Amino acid sequence: MRPLLFCLFWVAGLVSPQKIPRLKLIPKDALGSTFPEAESPKAVYYDADTTQVLIGGRGVLWVLDFTDSEITRRNITLNAEDKAVKDCKRKNPSREVNCDNLIRVIEKWDKKALVCGTNAGVPKCWFLINTTTWEKNKEGLNITLSGENIIPKSLSENVVTIAVEGNLYSALSGNKSSIQRSYGNKKGIKTEDSWLDNAEFVGAAVLTERNPNLDEIFFFYNEVNQTAGLDEEPYRAQLARVCKVDMGGKPILVDSWSTFLKARLVCGHPHEPLRFHHLRDAFVFTKDGKEKAILYGVFSSTWGASAVCSYSMGRISSLFKTSNFKGATSSIPNPRPGTCVSPDSYHVLPKHTLTFIKDHPELDTVIYPDEEHPLYILRNNDTYTHVVVDRVRDASNESHDVLFLGTEKGKIHKVLRSKDQTVIIAEISPFKEQESISSMILDAARGYLYVSTKAEVTRLPLSDCDQYSENCWRCVLARDPYCGWEVDARRCSAVSQIKNSTASRLLQNLDASNTTYVCDAAEEKLVQEALKKVSVDPTSYIYLPCPLRSHHAIYTWVKDDKTYPCSMDEQSCTLRFGESTPMDQGVFRCTAKEEGYQEEITAFKVTLNGGRVSEISLVVVATGIVFLTITILLL
Predict the structure, then answer these.
(1) Which has fewest Cβ within 10 Å: 70, 399, 531, 576?
(2) Are 10 and 569 contacting, i.e. CB atoms less than 8 angstroms apart?
(3) d(CA 29, CA 448)
């Protein structure tokens, strides 16, 4: 008879601390809503004026009202028109084509919402008034607008839209990809067919200048690399740019952009082989003006890794004004092709300038990130799909960029970009199912992040300081710029985002220097936990779990100044006794060391006996993880 003692836990490969989240959290204050699989969200829009989230599905528009503690949800029906459905079914009797109305675009339009759907293959748009009813004409019929130039007919082809000063700009993916000013008070113009090659659009942004005539609109996309070999990337990331006031150029580009330019975007070093070419999402942070605006892009590779790169938009804008043109052999005309001018000047642009830009819209320059390398690379069997960025004031009134990155497995990485370091503060798991993140919307003013998958939508607080509130050390070592330790109240609290506020009274340390001094004056180190007593047979196998409170800490098992190796997984640094580590008795302590602070996590007093053991013990660790240790009698 030999007793066998073992521990149940998750097993996973461990990655370098710089590439993995420090903490893995489940949000406590998230509000969420689920959707039937057949009616999964196709478009998500957040109205900051009303704090409502509009979600487009299959023949329905959901209106979600978020309060502090609950969500009120209303459904507004928007089926495809009868004639369009009949024609669709007649043309496609096999039902391979979807003959429903799939809502693809929602944009704020004046005081209304412009809602566009596929309408059984005849794209159409409707106007929603006060998020309650559709705008109607005198006869009581819904007022509609053709959506042919606004959204693609097929759900498989992506679309990116952006509304700027009463005009809607649409970037349609697919074989007939285009960038258009598709609706509004200005003339509708588009790209030439030869300028885009099967583009896959992922984002758009507007960059404003003091002179509105110089405002630029950027579009971010991928093109298939038609000349790629077996060992080359199948995609090429690109960004395109047009002038907001462009009215087309007579007589050559009458209905086309006369300022369209594009350039290749690469995430990596120009002279190193490790580069990322497939752009998954792009976000332009413009809070402090164009010169300080930053483009954050998430890229993926064919070998399954993700990378995050940043680019100065001021530098990109300068390159568009100074670079040579790809394939051009003649001198650059004057005025320079692509230059933003006053609206009245486009109809008198010289013919040779228009001819040049029609034939040579691409710059010869490849745009690399500011540091000429990624901020970091993610290699943990997950891939980034979306990114949004907030700029946060810490307790010293210094600003830091915080990135929120959605993954294909439904996780959200909260990332601090601080000085020369990028730290994944935490991995947040807000969803029940591991579905890919399909949209992320940031409301920095109110402090919320709205995230959706094909089955769920949730709202998360940007500053979830209760997650670190056990003591000063947990709060400070989190390196979360939203949170600091209140000495008097003895709690981890949100840092005020008002400049020169009382935030400086909070204890906080965001850089990578030694942090031992920060909390010394606030409190003593943690009192060691009570010993957990374990009595086992000398021939048994025993696993002692040490829960990971931080994935960036170094964990050590010690008994009588002797160090023991442990087996690392996603949740525990587990001490396993066996042939390589003989059983011994005494007090075994597991400690974690991080940024100069050392903490005892757990301790076991192991006693050897010669009798038969029959017991079941439950060890609950401080992180809330439960380890079940079971002794089994072998008869």
Answers:
(1) 70
(2) yes
(3) 11
Mean pLDDT in residue range 595-601: 81
DSSP tag of 374:
-
Cis status, amide bond into 335, omega within 30 of 0: yes
Q: Tell the CATH topology of 4-11+531-632.
A: Immunoglobulin-like (2.60.40)
CA 185/CA 183 separation, integer angstroms = 7
Neighbours of 139 (CB within 10 A): 5
Rounded to whole angstroms, the Cα distance separating 611 from 538 reads 9
d(CA 29, CA 459): 9
Cα–Cα separations (whole angstroms), residue 567 to 431, 553, 572: 29, 15, 8
Closest by CA to 239, choosing from 311, 150, 133, 149, is 311
Beta strands in 210-356 (DSSP E): 216-224, 235-243, 261-265, 267-268, 275-276, 278-285, 294-300, 306-312
pLDDT (average), residues 311-324: 93
- Which are the contacts of 337, defined by CB distance < 8 A and separation ≥ 6? 261, 325, 353, 354, 356, 357, 360
For the stretch 145-170, what's the b/e string if a residue is b when 16 or more beta carbons lie within 10 angstroms of its beta carbon? bebebbbbbeeebbbbbbbbeebbbb
Q: Give the residue carrying structure tokens 């073992």.
A: 6
Across 251-276, b (16+ Cβ under 10 Å) vs e yields: ebbeebbbbbbbbbbbbbeeeeeebb
Helix, strand or coil for residue 188? coil
Flag whether pLDDT at 516 surpasses 80.
Answer: no
Q: So where are the chain's domains?
A: 4-11+531-632
Strand-pairing partners, residue 60, are: 77
- CA distances from residue 479 to 266, 413, 414 in whole angstroms, order as listed: 30, 14, 11
Highest-pLDDT range among 231-235, 396-400, 424-428, 530-534: 424-428
Nearest to 480 by CA among 499, 507, 520: 507
Distance CA 326, CA 309 (A): 24
Give the residue among 170, 181, 299, 192 at the shortest CA–CA distance from 252.
192
Query: What is the identity of the amino acid at 178?
Result: S
Q: Containing H/E element for 620?
A: strand 616-620
**Distance between CA 564 and CA 63 in Å, rounded?**
57
Smallest CA-to-CA distance from 50 within 119, 103, 108, 124 is with 108
pTM of the model as a whole = 0.86
Sequence-ordered strand ranges (E) for 368-494:
376-378, 384-393, 399-407, 412-418, 421-428, 439-443, 448-452, 456-461, 483-486, 491-494
